Amino acid sequence: MPRLFTGLEIPAEIGQTLSNLRGGLPGARWIDPENYHVTLRFIGDIDGVSANEIASMLVRINRKPFDVALQGLQSFGGKKPRAVVASVVPSRPLIELQAELERLMQRLGLNPEGRKFTPHVTLARLRDASNQDVADYLSVRGYFPTRVFTASRFVLFSSRASTGGGPYVVEDSYALAG
Questions:
Q1: Active site (annotated) includes residue 16
Q2: Considering 37, 75, 151, 156, which one is annotated as catalytic?
Q3: CATH 3.90.1140.10 fits 3-175, yes or no
Q4: Is 82 labeled as catalytic in the residue annotation?
Q5: pLDDT tens digit string along 134-154?
Q6: Of 49, 103, 134, 142, which has the maximum CB count within 10 A?
Q7: Domain coordinates of the chain in residue numbers?
């Protein structure tokens, strides 16, 4: 059973910039730059028939390319930080693409996504990182100049069941050519 999700790939040059922010945070498990992405819709563990149905449904999406801006770092998890992420500015085309993917997945019978869409790129997963260590890290590395790229496609990724962080495989890609 593949574990699937849709997302945007991060261009290699931006991945290199983000990878330069690695290190200096106890308890961080850093994601490899080739696995950086913006998750649009987590689908989950799906049987082969459903996976084919999802892949053929995604072909119907007809949207134009749009710019994606990465701006600054933050942590997720509140008092118990669980990840360090690069923030993605939530533009209208990005929000609309995510909402369309959500509607399509529900139409196929998947449960609604339980969390509010907060676009980001996960840089590190945290285990036993203290609030102070995360705050110190963010105060030193949390700012970086905004990086912008044009999303000209979104992809259907698969991953093996694990604690996250890849490796991710592009199963199919869908041009944004609307």
A1: no
A2: 37
A3: yes
A4: no
A5: 999 999 998 888 999 999 999
A6: 134
A7: 3-175
